[in-house]
Amino acid sequence: MKSLFSILLIILTFQVNSQWVLDYQFVSNVGIFSMSVIDSSNFWFNTADSLNNRQLYKKYSGNFIPINTLGIIMPNKLTAIDNVSAFLNAGSRRLYKTTNSGINWIVIRDSVLSGYDYSVDKHSPNFIAAGKTNLDSNLSVLYTSTNRGDTWI
Asked: In whole angstroms, how far apart are CA 129 and each of 58, 91, 124, 152?
């Protein structure tokens, strides 16, 4: 009986250790809608409350750090490259870049590509793709940049 209990305890311990772990819990009216993982202990994420007020955070070395988004309208999709560099698509259809952990954001693509969705290659952040489908004309377009959005092909 003792050996059966030991085996059961080992099985239960293995199952507990292989489950999801609650890292943090926000109040009930805040949701996470965009996340970009750097590694197992470092990631960036975007939250919105019930009034659609948005806030960026970075988890770095176990701490949750709010990220400056002053002047950015409706921060949306977030792509972090590392702990200091990230790209952010905003509701103004601008694409922003930070290289100092969000202290400052630089517009690298203005609303010329209004309504486009952006994606940044995390392994080669010089490469960015922007695409859009126009349902009225049944036309889809894709632009790419090989220099972090300075010019588009």
From this structure: 24, 18, 12, 9
